[in-house]
Structures are given as C-alpha cells and as structure tokens.
Design brief:
The chain has 703 residues and is of the alpha/beta class. It folds into 4 domains: 84 residues, mini-chromosome maintenance (MCM) complex, chain A, domain 1, CATH 3.30.1640; 153 residues, Nucleic acid-binding proteins (OB fold (Dihydrolipoamide Acetyltransferase, E2P), Beta Barrel); 295 residues, P-loop containing nucleotide triphosphate hydrolases (Rossmann fold), CATH 3.40.50; 70 residues. It contains 24 helices and 26 strands. The strands form 8 sheets. It has a 5-stranded mixed beta barrel. The chain has a 5-stranded parallel β-sheet with strand order 14-17-20-13-21. A hairpin with a 2-residue loop joins strand 18 and strand 19. Helix 1 crosses helix 4, helix 3 crosses helix 4 and helix 7 packs across helix 19. It is globular.
Length: 703
C-alpha cells in the first residue's frame, strides 16, 4: 500500500504524543498482545480532518495508522508487522434497525447483545497453489468466502497452464476467524417490535473474546454480501459488519472498572452504621414499603460465598428468592429494578418462556456451515448475574422441570442433536408467582395455591408472601407515596414538553426527595461488585453457634412421634448464605453474631408465612418440600385405612361413601376436609376410584 508521507508523519506524531507508553507496552508483550487501543476523542482533538476521514473512509485511515505504528522507532529490536490499531468510542453509533445503504463502507458502531457465536477457525488469506505440471508456486489473495484458484494460469512462463493446481497448506497464510450475531438489547425495543440482528466477522486477536449473552458495542466497517440463489446472484444484499474493536457494556462483577475516587466512596459508605437501611431504601424507591422483601433482594445482590472443595464439588453461594402474592403488589417492578442493578441481569416472563428459551437450544448454525450449535437461553445469559422470571406459575410443567438442575447445581446439561454439553448458569434466580385463584387464602397451604412443583419451591432460599390486606394507615401512606410519585412525573413531563412552562428544576428536585435513591444506582452496582470481588467472610464462633442453635431448636419440634419436621438441611444452607451476604453488605470479612441474628429473623419471617400448617399452627417443612403437611398426610392415611377396612369386609369390595364419611368423622375429619382429601386421592394421586354405577370407593392397585 502506498501511504501519503504527510499523513504518515502526522499519524506518527499522533501516536508519539498520545500513545507512546501504550506502544512501548505493546512492543513488550508482542506477539501475545497485538492490538493498540486508540480513543477516537484523542484523534479528533489532534486532527479533526483525520477523524472525519476515519468515519468516511475507515479502511485507508486504519491501514495508515497501522503503517505508522510499524514505522515507529522502538527501543526494542522488535517489528510490529502484525499489529493492529483498534479505534474505540466512535460517535457514529447507529441502532441495528436503522442501518441503511448510505452506511455501507462507513465506520460505524452498533450496540446490542451477542446472540450467537461460532467456533474460532483458521481462514486462508493468501493461498499457495502448486502447479502439478511444473511444481511452480503461485500465490493468490483470498478476499471472499470462496477459494479462488489462479484463473490466469501458472506463473511459470514456460508452463502457463490453467491447472491442475494443488493447495499447499504449509506455504499459505492463515488468520483466526469467527462469525457472530449481535441483536438489539431487549430493553431498547419499542412495544410489539421484534429484535433485529446483524452478522459480525471477527478476525485475528478479536476472535474468542465474545460469548452468547455479552452486551457489547461493536465498532467496524459495514459491508454488503449478495444473497445466494439457486439461479445465480440476487440483487438483494445482506449486511455484514467487519469488526475492528469490541467495547463491553455489561461487565461481570470481576470486570467492572472502579476508579480510586469511587473506591474511596465505597469504603466510606461501608463505614456508615446505617448502610443496611440506605441500600434497602435505594432498591426500587418508587415502591412504598415491603422492607423485608427489599432486604432479601439486597442479600441476593451481594450473595453468599461460592465454595470449591478439594474433591471437586461446588456449593453455590447465590441466593434464590421467590415472591408470591396478590395482584398489584409491585412484584414485577421489583424484579425489573433488581435486573437493572445487576451487572448481568436478564428478565423473562414464564408464560412466554419455553424450557429451551430458559436453558439452551440446539439450532442449525446458519453463520457457519450448517452444523448444529448450542444457543444459550436466559439462565445462561444471566451467568454471574441475576435471572428474573415473572409469572413462574404460568409456565408449563416441562419448562419448570428444566429449572431444577440450574438452581441447585448451577449447570445446564444438554444432550440434543448429537451435542452433549454442560453450560454454566451461575446465577441467582428471582421469581414471581400469583396464587391459582387470584388472591391468597391464608387458611390453605402454599402448595395448594401455587401451581408449582414442591421440589422446585424447596430450592428457593426465601419464599415471600405479598398480601394485599386493607389497613387504613398503611393504605393512606401508600396512596400518598403513589400520588407524589406520579405528581413528580407530571412536573418533569410538563417542564420538558411545554416551552412556556414556569416550573423550575429546584421545585421538581424538592418534590423528588422520597423517590430519589439514597445511593446512586451506578455507585450501588459498583459497591456490590467491589464487595463480591474483594470480600470473602469467615464465620465467627458465636455466629456459628447461633445458627446451629436456631436450626436445632426448630428441629426439636419434630422429635415426637406425631409431630411434623419443621425445617430441613436446605434451610440451614440458606442461613449460611444469607449470613455471608449480610457481612458482605458492610464489606466485612467476618460474619458476626449480628449477621446471624439478621439472617434468622428474615428466615423466621418467611417460615411463619409459608411453612405453617393451617390446621395445626405448627411449622412443617413438608408443606414446602412435598406440598402436603404432616397433618394432611396423616388424615389421608386414615381415610385410606377406612376404605381398605370397609371394602375388605364387603362382598363386592366397594366401600360406600356414606359409611366411609361416617367413620372419618369419628376420627376428627369434618365433611369439608373429607371432600378435599377424596378429590386429592382421586384426581391428583389416583389412589382410589369410583367403580361405574356405584356410590362407593375402591383402592387402586398400583403396580
């Protein structure tokens, strides 16, 4: 390539002035590191004409920059022949759905979520062809996807034949290549529109940096590729972006950049004795009340400590929470707010999510050569973050069963289309569900009112009931808060949209006191990231003893012959995770007795709501674990014994309903309970049936 000397001198001057240290660092780590990152803003400050030409004619400017980089005087005896210049922060950011023909060959940036990525494979850039007649090697550049042979024939003047040729792999030039697909971020979509996507080409050291679920900005040159038809080439072209640099948007907790000033702010916040209340009030401040739920969501954000043991086993640190309650108690708003606070949050609704959409799907790879490939679902995309699933009760049973492994083992095993793989889903699950009959009935068990398998419910560390109970003082406070929130919104819209508005910003700020979070969401996100990155608490002896005493005291309630089991070891593990999260909130490497007390208080709050048998008033873990309390199970057993006894002494083996009900009443089972248990035994469990033409019961003989 011929480079203008004037440009070459200017670009060398630019690199020396702004990137001298970066070039030296690149030379030290070359060839392991092969890219120099250049900020567009610096280039624009240096020379506005070059910056403008970069947008209009990116290929020549980037090649000139790379040529200037190779020509620079280095103190080391090294040559940066294969080095690249990667330009970031370009202003020409265009939504994927707004890409048009006028953007072809321009330098643009697109923002979105990586939907799919192929394997990294070598692509030939210069092919060496050996003439089979005279053994002469002819080199042919390979700009496209189809391998071009030497059409002009052999380079040997004495031969000049047009083949046959043999490709010599050893003397050809290859480059790493990968294809990807970027899709519009779900939160940027307008109502009713489908997310649009564009294909991306990654080359050399940009390959292998992205994975499905990453939210990124891709800077590159927009190209067009003709659609292939059986009859020939089409007049319609598909858009492809040749990536020149990648900028990450949502970073995992370990990758978030925290400046020295922000770190000082974080440490100062952690020393505040009211840090717990400040964080709780910063979670969804537009929603009034629900303090205990927001406290649980705070613990979920900070999470417990992941343990890796020498035998290879892993214990999760993520805390799973489910909110069950009446309509209109702001469950969905809480879910959406937590997703925004998490560096990698994914929101989905149970009714519109399939098992493959939540976990992973096997799809034909239309980016590569048509092979089957794995496409990550919502739980994979939320890896190291939080997955919020609304309307969990509306999911189909087969979709719910897909969550079991993802919640406890935090992996997703796939065996589809000849692919056997295990994907990571190290995320905390935040669910929301409504009672089956619209509103919650406090006199019926939780499992009877939520259309969810008990085995799935038992995997949640905390289960909250959000009840809409009329109470004049609370209703008054909620009404005032909601009215104030809407009034503030009205003021902002009036000021922004009416030019003659006399409303001042000071007045708006004075009205927003109750709905502005005490801690800015961006700082809170970094506070959480700093804690998860740097704090690994160890439990004090008295904290350990408090949790053990709490657990054993609850277990003692179940020591009698006819008493239920109040809690299981799953609740004990949840206590440990919550105590560790409580210590992380104040950036402490010690779990103190105060953390243990906070943990047992919030756990007891949950158990009182969901683990109490309505007929006995005792704590019963079976309500969560199996869906039936011990008292219910005992009464079902009594009814089965009565049917067995009466049918055994009758000639036709049928136990008349009136006789069975009379005996049940003698055992303390009233008519309403009897009807409910008969329905459970017939419809749900299939353990009894009514023979045709009779008014009695028979036990079903199961094989």
């Amino acid at each position: 390539m011929v480079v203008d000397e004037k440009w070459n001198k200017k670009l060398k001057d630019f690199l020396k002035r702004y990137h001298q240290d970066d070039v030296l660092e690149l030379a030290n780590s070359y060839p392991d590191k092969r890219s120099l990152i250049v900020n567009y803003d610096k280039l624009e400050v240096f020379d506005r004409d070059i910056a403008r030409d970069l947008i209009e004619d990116p290929e020549s400017v980037i090649l000139s920059l790379e040529f200037a980089l190779k020509e620079m005087d280095l103190p080391l005896p090294k040559s940066l022949d294969s080095a690249h210049v990667r330009v970031i922060n370009i202003p020409n950011r265009i939504p994927i759905r707004d890409l048009r023909s006028k953007h072809l060959s321009k330098f643009i940036a697109v923002e979105g979520m990586i939907r799919r990525a192929t394997e990294v494979r070598p692509r030939i850039t210069k092919a060496a062809f050996k003439c089979m007649r005279c053994d002469t090697i002819t080199y042919v550049e390979q700009p496209g996807n189809k391998l071009d042979e030497p059409y002009s024939g052999c380079e040997n003047e004495n031969c000049g034949k047009r083949g046959p040729f043999k490709l010599v792999i050893e003397q050809s030039d290859f480059i790493d290549s990968q294809k990807g697909q970027i899709q519009e971020s779900p939160e940027s979509l307008k109502g009713g529109s489908n997310p649009q996507s564009i294909e991306i080409n990654f080359n050399d050291d940009l390959t292998g940096l992205i994975s499905p679920g990453d939210r990124v900005i891709i800077n590159g040159i927009l190209r067009s590729v003709p659609r292939a038809l059986r009859e020939g080439k089409s007049t319609f072209y598909d858009l492809v972006l040749d990536a020149t640099s990648i900028e990450r948007l949502d970073k995992e907790y370990d990758e978030l950049d925290i400046t020295a000033e922000e770190e000082e702010q974080i440490l100062e916040l952690s020393r505040d004795p009211k840090i717990y209340d400040k964080i709780v009030s910063s979670i969804a401040p537009t929603i009034y009340g629900n303090e205990h739920v927001k406290r649980a969501l705070m613990y979920q954000l900070f999470s417990g400590v992941v343990k890796q043991f020498p035998d290879g086993t892993r214990t999760r640190g993520d805390i799973h929470v489910i909110l069950v309650g009446d309509p209109g108690v702001a469950k969905s708003q809480l879910l959406r707010y937590i997703v925004r606070l998490s560096p990698r949050g994914v929101f989905t609704s149970g009714k519109s999510s399939s098992a493959s959409g939540l976990t992973a799907a096997a799809v034909r790879d239309d980016l590569g050569d048509g092979r089957w490939t794995i496409e990550g679902g919502a739980l994979v995309m939320a890896d190291m973050g939080i997955a919020a699933v609304d309307e969990m009760d509306k999911m189909r049973d087969e979709d719910k069963s897909a969550l079991h492994e993802a919640m406890e083992q935090q992996t997703i095993s796939i065996a589809k289309a000849g692919i056997i793989a295990t994907l990571k889903s190290r995320c905390a699950l935040l669910g929301a569900a409504n009672p089956v009959y619209g509103r919650f009935n406090r006199y019926e068990s939780l499992a009877d009112q939520i259309d969810m398998p008990p085995a799935l419910l038992s995997r949640f560390d905390l289960i909250f009931l959000l009840l809409d109970v009329p109470e004049s003082q609370m209703d008054n406070r909620i009404a005032e808060h909601v009215i104030q929130t809407h009034y503030t919104g009205e003021l902002m819209q009036h000021k922004n949209n009416i030019s003659s508005s006399n409303i001042t910003q000071e007045y708006i700020d004075s009205q927003m006191i109750n709905i502005i979070p005490e801690i800015d969401p961006d700082l809170l996100r970094k506070y959480v990231a700093y804690s998860r990155r740097n704090v690994y608490p160890i439990m004090d002896e008295d904290a350990r003893m408090h949790i053990v005493d709490f657990y054993t005291s609850l277990r003692k309630q179940g020591e009698g012959k006819n008493t239920p089991v109040p809690v299981t070891a799953r609740q004990l593990e949840a206590l440990i995770r919550l105590a560790e999260a409580s210590a992380r909130v104040r950036l402490s490497n010690r779990v103190t007795i105060d953390d243990a007390i906070r943990t047992t208080d919030i756990t007891m709050e949950c158990l009182k709501n969901v683990g109490i048998d309505p007929s006995t008033g005792m704590l019963d873990a079976d309500i969560i674990a199996s869906g039936i309390s011990k008292s219910q199970r005992d009464k079902i057993g009594i009814i089965k014994d009565i049917i067995r006894t009466i049918s055994g002494r009758s000639q036709d083996g049928i136990a008349p309903q009136k006789e069975v009900q009379a005996e049940a009443e003698k055992s303390g089972i009233n008519a309403e309970e009897f009807e409910a248990y008969i329905v459970k035994l017939r419809a749900e469990k299939g353990e009894i049936y009514v023979p045709p033409g009779s008014d009695g019961f028979k036990l079903a003989h199961k094989r």
